[in-house]
Amino acid sequence: MTTLIAAYRSRTVTMQVYSALVRQGVACSLVSTPREAGVGCGMSVQFGPAHFDVVSQYVGQPTFAGFFRINRINGRRYVTRV
Question: In angstroms, rounded to a whole number, what is the distance separating the alpha carbons of residues 6 and 66?
Fold first, then answer.
C-alpha cells in the first residue's frame, strides 16, 4: 500500500491545508509525521497518489517541508522523499 504525505513545519498551516483540501473534496487525513522523514511539526496531511496534483498547489506555503511516499511492505514502513 502506498500513500503520500505533505509535511509542513507549522501545525497551523498543516491544519489550514487539510481544511482547504477537505473543502475541495480531496480524501485526506491528518497524521503524525513519520520519524523517518526527519522534518515538520509532527503533523502531516496524508493523501492518495491520485490527488498529488491538487495537493501540490499548496507547496508555496513558507513552511512546506516536502512530500514523502510511504510504502508498507510485509509489515514494514518505508519513507522516501518525493
Answer: 6
3-state secondary structure of 59: coil
Distance CA 51, CA 39 (A): 22
- Sheet hosting strand 2-8, strand order edge to edge: 28-32, 43-47, 2-8, 64-73, 76-81
- Helix ranges (H only) for 1-82 are 11-23, 52-55
pTM of the predicted protein model = 0.91
CA distance 70 to 52: 14
Q: How far apart (Å, rounded) are the C-alpha atoms in residues 58 and 10?
A: 13
State the DSSP code for 22.
Answer: H
Residues of the chain scoring pLDDT < 70? none
H or E, element range at 53: helix 52-55
Euclidean distance between CA atoms 82 and 75, whole angstroms: 21
